[in-house]
Fold this sequence. Notes:
This protein is mainly alpha-helical. 21% of the residues lie in helices and 0% in strands. The longest helix has 9 residues, at 2-10.
Amino acid sequence: xxxxxxxxxxxxxxxxxxxxxxxxxxxxxxxxxxxxxxxxxxxxxxxxxxxxxxxxxxxxxxxxxxxxxxxxxxxxxx
Length: 78
């Protein structure tokens, strides 16, 4: 949220943050109750329904688990 707030301030917008629990924020965006929120396209059903900016930050996600309890992970977007 700090990144979005910094960008908003630099372009002259005031940002009011509101917490929506869980999947509620996606539903609120779909109903037009929120103007913007940070999310990766890969995590959204029907991303073509939304407008997207260029990426704001680049991240690397890392899964950490116990060696004696390995997990099998297969990303949904591959």
